[in-house]
Amino acid sequence: MFLAGRHAEAPQEALQVLDIVLRELPSARYAPFGRSFFSPDLGRRQPLGDGLESWRGFYQSIRPTQMGLSLNIDMSATAFIEPLPVIDYAAQLLRSDIHSRPLSDAERVKIKKALRGVKVEVTHRGNMRRKYRISGLTTQATRELTFPVDEGGTVKSVVQYFQETYGFAIQHTYLPCLQVGNQQRPNYLPMEVCKIVEGQRYSKRLNQNQIRALLDETCQYPRDRERDITQMVKHNAYQEDPYAKEFGIKISDCLASVDARILPAPRLKYNETGREKDCIPRVGQWNMMNKKMVNGGKVRSWMCVNFARNVPDKLARDFCHQLAQMCQDSGMDFALEPVLPPMSARPDQVERALKARYHEAMNILGPQRRELDLLIGILPDNNGSLYGDLKRVCEIDLGIVSQCCCTKQVFKLNKQIYANIALKINVKVGGRNTVLVDALSRRIPLVTDRPTIIFGADVTHPHPGEDSSPSIAAVVASQDWPEVTRYAGLVSAQAHRQELIEDLYKVRQDPQKGPVSSGMIRELLISFKKSTGEKPQRIIFYRDGVSEGQFYQVLLFELNAIRKPVLPWRQTTNHR
C-alpha cells in the first residue's frame, strides 16, 4: 500500500525485515558494526598510531523515498586494533621501547586500560592458536609470579611452568603477565606469547592525531566517492544475493537519478559604515574585507592566558594586539589594551592559573564596577583535555566568555585568521556578524510573514565504556525576528544514552502556586518574547541525531512536550 501511494507512513516492521534480509550476506562476509560492514579486503589499511589502524567499509540501509524503496550505500571507515604481538602493541601505545626494561606503574595502568576486554591468541603452542579475552594485567613482573599446582600447597613459577610444559624460555621476565579468565582463578599469560586477534573494532575515544589520520583517510572528492560506491555495489553483487532472490528483491547496479536544482546564494547585509554594505558569497566563500559587522558587540575589558610553552610572551602580546585591532576594524567596540598583560601558565594548572588571573583582573575592574568581558586562551595544537577544562572553568566557575586559539594560528599572524576569530568573538559577546537581505525585506517564506521562532535540538551521548556518564541535551532558539540570526542555548544532563529530551517540558512544584509548568521550550519562548516584544506565532523545530528506529517515538514524545507550554500562549492570541 505504501509503495502504491495508498498509505502515507512507511511500514517500519516491513522495512526492518527487508533490511535484515539484505544484511545477511554481508554479515557473513565482513565484520558488521551497526549499519556498516568492514573488512581489510575492502581497501587499504592505514595506521592511525598507538596500535590502531583504519579499515574501509560501507554503510547500508533500506530507505523509503519518493521513488519507492531505495538501498542507501555510502563509504565508511573506522578504527580497529592492529593484530600485533602484545609487546609491540604496548610499545606503540607508550611510544617507547619496552623490550629491555620494566614498566612504571603509570605505564602498566595505561596498558591495562587499553587491553582490558581485548582478545588475544597464544603463539607458543604451534598451530594450536587458542584465544583468550584479557581481564587485566598483573602488578608483579613475570619472574615473580607463582601459582598453586595441587591442593597440597605446592607452587610453581610461571617461568618454570612454561619451560617445563612447553619448552618455552620466557625472555622478557621483567614485564607483567596478562590475566585471562576470572579473578578467582586467574590464568597468567606472558605478554611475549600473545598476539592480538584480528578484526577487533576500537570503540573507545580516539585522540586528536588518530581522528586527523582517520579523516585524512576518509575525506574524498565527490567523484572519487561516487566511483568507490559504484565499485562497492558491483563487488557485493546484490543481483546474486540468494537471500534477496528468495524474497523477490532486485537491486539496480546504477545510482539513482534525482532531479535537483542549485539554490542561489543569499545576499548578506553588513553595516552601512563599511565600504561594502552587502555581498553575495561565491562558491560558498566570502570574507570581511571592506566590511563591518552589522551589529558589533562590546568588549571593554579582556585578558589573555598563554598555555603554549613554545609561544613566547612577545609573540602572545603581538597576536593579542593584532586580534584586538581586527575586532575594532570589523566594527566591534573593542578595547585595544588588555586589563593585564598576557601571562604564561602551565597546561596542567589551568584552573589555578585562570582563577588567580581572574581575581587579579577583578581587583582592577571591581572598584570601577566593571566586569571582565572576554578571556583569550592560547593553547598547544595537541591540547588533550585542556580545551574542555578551560571552557568549564570560564563558563561554569567564573562566568566569562572565552575564545581559544591554537599555537599554529598564533604563529601565522594572518589577517584572515584574525578576521575569522573576530567573527567568533562578536557572536559570543552578543553581536551579529551579518543578516540576510531577504529577511530584512520579508521575503523568506514561512519565516518573515509572521513572528517565527526557530529551534534546533540534539543529544550528545557518552562514548561506549563510559557507563555512568549522562547524555547531554542541548536546545537553541532564535531570539530575533525577522532576521533569525541570534540564538540562545540551554543544556541539560539526562539519563545515560537517553535520546528523548526529557527537560523540554517539566512541571515543578511551587510552594504558593502549586504545580507550575517549566522546561527548556518555555524558557526559550519567554526569552524570545522579552527579546523581540512579540509572541511567536509559528515554531520551526530542527531535531538532529535520531535514528530511523527511534524517529516516531521521539516525534510523538517531543511534539507533545513542545505543545504543552504553547497551549496557554495560544489562548491569548488569535493566531494558531
From TrEMBL:
GO molecular function, one term: RNA binding
Domain PAZ positions: 85-198
Matching CDD domains: PAZ_argonaute_like (cd02846)
InterPro entries for the chain: ArgoL1, ArgoL2, Argonaute_Mid_dom, PAZ_dom, PAZ_dom_sf, Piwi, RNaseH-like_sf, RNaseH_sf
Boundaries of every Piwi domain copy: 374-564
Assigned keywords, A-Z: RNA-mediated gene silencing
A Pfam family per the record: PAZ
Entry's Gene Ontology BP terms: regulatory ncRNA-mediated gene silencing
Record family assignment: Belongs to the argonaute family. Ago subfamily.
PANTHER family linked: EUKARYOTIC TRANSLATION INITIATION FACTOR 2C
Record's protein name: Uncharacterized protein
UniProt source species: Triticum turgidum subsp. durum (Durum wheat)
